[in-house]
């Protein structure tokens, strides 16, 4: 199942898995969010982007084609979706308020699953961090265990991009050699590893609701070099609404990385 907001937060995928145990009749839920991802995806008919894994999942899923943005920023959109209330109701339009105190003590989606005996877990960016979720990602109301955050996220705004001069810069766009990054990893790789660890380590005593929030494609675009090196030619297209602007030959940040 897909829902998606147009501009600001996320594509959300709820994927139910049949539990291994015959004891539990409830389905497990894997709930995936991606920050700033919109419907610019193969499964929505986009002719340019390459999204083979999402397309494969979509091919076996119900894809919802009416996509809306609750609010053109992250925090209130997440609050809206996770409390099942529009911003008109929460009256939260920025990042600086916790709904339980400033809107209403609303039950969240994971909280509901938790109240029904589910083991609820949060990995990465699910609730908007900081005061918007009371600096706890709404734990313990929403989650059975403390939420996980990828440790390497702390480098996201630091100078991590090697420039042509060999020095490190804080670029908006940069393809990095992952093994040279601190800890040899990137935040979304850590979140994926943690999600897999939780899935493998689960017990069949209770059904689970596992929320996995990816930080990409939110800026900065610190991405694995391998994602661009395996393309012979990177064509960059700028688009305003439905209008495709004249082709941009090359992004500076890719120079030297792309082998023609
Ligand atoms: C908010 O709701 C939770 C249960 O959903 C409850 O434990 C808590 O006491 C409530 N807080 C207030 C201030 O009503
Ligand atoms: C927010 O967090 C603080 C500190 O952890 C806690 O004392 C307070 O009860 C929390 N607010 C709500 C509404 O649960
Ligand atoms: C990435 O960095 C490692 C360690 O410095 C190096 O061995 C490897 O060749 C680099 N990979 C590429 C594609 O540059």
From TrEMBL:
Residues 1-24 form the signal peptide. It comes from the Eukaryota. GO terms for cellular component: cytoplasm. Keywords: Hydrolase, Metal-binding, Signal. InterPro entries: Alkaline_phosphatase_core_sf, Sulfatase_CS, Sulfatase_N. GO terms for molecular function: iduronate-2-sulfatase activity; metal ion binding. Residues 27-225 form the Sulfatase N-terminal domain. Its cofactor is Ca(2+). PANTHER family: IDURONATE 2-SULFATASE. Belongs to the sulfatase family. This is Iduronate 2-sulfatase.
């Amino acid at each position: 199942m897909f829902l998606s907001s147009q501009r600001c937060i996320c594509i959300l995928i709820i994927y139910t898995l049949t539990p291994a145990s015959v004891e539990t009749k409830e389905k497990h839920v894997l709930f995936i969010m991606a920050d700033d991802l919109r419907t610019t995806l193969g499964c929505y008919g986009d002719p340019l982007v390459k999204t083979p894994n999402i397309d494969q999942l979509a091919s076996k899923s119900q894809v919802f084609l009416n996509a809306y943005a609750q609010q053109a920023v992250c925090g209130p959109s997440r609050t809206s979706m996770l409390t099942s209330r529009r911003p008109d109701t929460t009256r939260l339009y920025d990042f600086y308020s916790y709904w339980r105190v400033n809107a209403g003590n609303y039950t969240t989606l994971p909280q509901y699953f938790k109240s029904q005996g589910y083991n609820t877990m949060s990995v990465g960016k699910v609730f908007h961090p900081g005061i918007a979720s009371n600096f706890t990602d709404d734990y313990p109301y929403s989650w059975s265990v403390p939420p996980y955050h990828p440790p390497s996220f702390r480098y996201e705004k630091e100078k991590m991009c090697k420039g042509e001069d060999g020095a490190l810069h804080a670029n908006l766009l940069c393809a990095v050699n992952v093994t040279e990054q601190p800890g040899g990893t990137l935040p979304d790789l850590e979140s994926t590893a943690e999600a897999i660890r939780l899935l493998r380590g689960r017990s069949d005593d209770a059904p689970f609701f596992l929320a996995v929030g990816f930080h990409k494609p939110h800026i900065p675009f610190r991405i694995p070099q391998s994602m661009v090196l395996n393309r012979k030619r990177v064509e960059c297209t700028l688009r305003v609404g439905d209008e495709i602007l004249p082709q941009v030959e090359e992004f500076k940040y890719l120079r030297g990385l792309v082998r023609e």
